[in-house]
Amino acid sequence: MTVIEEYGVVDPGAGPYGITTGPDGALWFTLVHAGQIGRMVPGEEPTTYQLDPAGQPTIITTGPDGALWFTESRAHHIGRITTGGVITRFPVPSRDGGPYGIAAGPDGALWFTEMNADRIGRITPGGESTEFPLPVTGAYPSAITAGTDGGMWFTMNQANAIGRIDMDGTITTCPLPTEAAAPVGITTGPDGAIWFVEIAAGQIGRITPDGTITEFPLPDRAARPHAITSDGDGRLWFTEWAGNRVGSITTDGIIDIHDLPTPRSEPHGITLGPDGALWTALENGALARIAIPGR
């Protein structure tokens, strides 16, 4: 049986959004409305670190240097915070670029998306940035992940496509079969394929390195899936922002859905926690722990 517990970590207005597990065995999360970064070791009290109050920190990930890296979509910065809480911020090259997704690449750098500028960015641990323009305008690139093929894969929310960028900046795009699907979250699956969510179509998608796409409709097509991650045990887990649920999908497409305890909690980011459970950030001010059966 899947057990879900919620832990209030901040005021409801602070808005927990992105979440990841750091190298220090803690959960790190963004507070999108408060302009803060949060840290919590499961079972202990959380700590918060103040950024630009209006900066809108969104996605957070562990960098190759052992620090946490995050995007500030409204402040147009890439941020870095050490496990001791020391913060450094770097402006993105494109003015008003709107950075959103960020992930570590195989080249020792961080790669990020710029929603407003239709660009993919690359930043070294030392803060040196490079940008690569997309071949289309109005694409609204969103989440990004490292693939098993040496490239970075990203969602193109308004272009209705999945993109891939090589380490030399070469970009290819793959249109989705479903029109206006609006992909957002993306991750690498245990099968070597890339998995993503289609927030407007209510589907989970899978794309192989050669560009073959399969789509799996959710039981509730209006659930608005938002983020997705692997559980390290052969399944992918995702959040349903409008459905107030979390779900899992096997690599052969079997879907299981679970209601969250609190109505209208607005689940966003999701990650495998340091304790072997899944954790999701709830915009109502809490983190939810999803215990995986069998662990």
Query: So what's the CATH class?
Result: Mainly Beta
Total beta strands: 28
Q: Give the low-pLDDT segments.
A: none
- Determine the CATH superfamily: YVTN repeat-like/Quinoprotein amine dehydrogenase
Count of the separate structural domains: 1
User: How are the strands of the largest sheet arranged?
Assistant: 1-28-27-26
Report strand %. over 45%
Q: What is the CATH topology?
A: Methylamine Dehydrogenase, Chain H
Helix and strand string, N-terminal first? EEEEEEEEEEEEEEEEEEEEEEEEEEEE
Kindly name the structural category.
mainly beta
Can you characterise this structure?
- The protein has strands at residues 3-8, 16-21, 27-31, 36-40, 47-50, 57-62, 68-72, 77-81, 87-91, 99-104, 110-114, 119-123, 129-133, 141-146, 152-156, 161-165, 171-175, 183-188, 194-198, 203-207, 213-217, 225-230, 235-240, 245-250, 255-259, 267-272, 278-282, 286-291.
- Strand 2 (16-21) and strand 3 (27-31) form a beta hairpin.
- The protein has a 4-stranded antiparallel sheet, with no helix packed on it. Strands 2-3-4-5 form a 4-stranded antiparallel sheet, with no helix packed on it. A 4-stranded antiparallel sheet has the order 6-7-8-9, with no helix packed on it.
- The radius of gyration is 17 Å and the shape is globular.
- The mean pLDDT is 96.
- It is built from no helices and 28 strands.
- Its EC number is 4.2.99.-.
